[in-house]
Here is the input.
Amino acid sequence: MFSFLPAPMVGLIAAMLLLLNILFWVPVLLLLALVKLLIPLKSVRMAIDPLLLHIAEAWIAGNSAWMGLTQGTQWDVQGIDDLKYHSWYLVNCNHQSWVDILVLQHLFNRRIPLLKFFLKQQLIWVPIMGLAWWALEFPFMRRHSEDYLKQHPEMRGKDQETTRKACEKFALIPTSVMNFLEGTRFTPAKHQRQKSPYRHLLKPKAGGLALALNAMGDKFQAILDVTIVYPEGTPDFWQFLRGQLKRVVVRVRTIPIPQQLAQCDYAGDPAVREAYQKWVQQLWLDKDAQIAALISRPDPSPG
Here is the structure.
């Protein structure tokens, strides 16, 4: 609708609609979250949690609406038709930009349960959004360097404990646990610094996925392995708001839960860690080849 306008004007309209959508829904989220905090009973949680999720889904639907108004994006998507809303899923995806989050939410909203992301602890201080993520019980993780952990060994294992506690809550009602195996957004500089063996991906980290499977392996129906490709280059968030994301390609592959690994001790058994790492490395080899094929694939649109 607004895509014919100059890009800076499209960006301002999109940013305004995004902000209005946040300001409309977040106060309602916080009010219900406060009730749950003040009355810490399981019956109250079981009554309020579904309401919080429905509000979040309406919020995401609002984002999809302004995206439709301001963006002329061509969506090339496969693999989302047979998903089930009332199931538990472990979702894995390559990570290139904050735009990935809006893409995933737009495609999966009301097809599967709300995506729950593991966030860096610092993000709780993001104005308005940090409170919203807290209200929706997104887990906040403290990520420390190896040097820091050597000086403060008592902090080792804190993230694992946060993951375990979060998964205990996720097991109460259908949830989609979102995991970026790379742990951070892909950039050429990070790729070079890591000496990653993959052309289009950073090295995967199996620990978070293993913890989630160990805590909820009996709940998850499947793993959704998602691949996102931006054939014309990865957009930053402002470029996206300006309507410069012309085409996005998404492939979703449903993978059975590896039951031989799901209930094993990743942290304490070196053989289990090696088996997980081999499994994840093969997953990443397949994804790397898929990205290469999708990038080289010609644009199917007319002209």
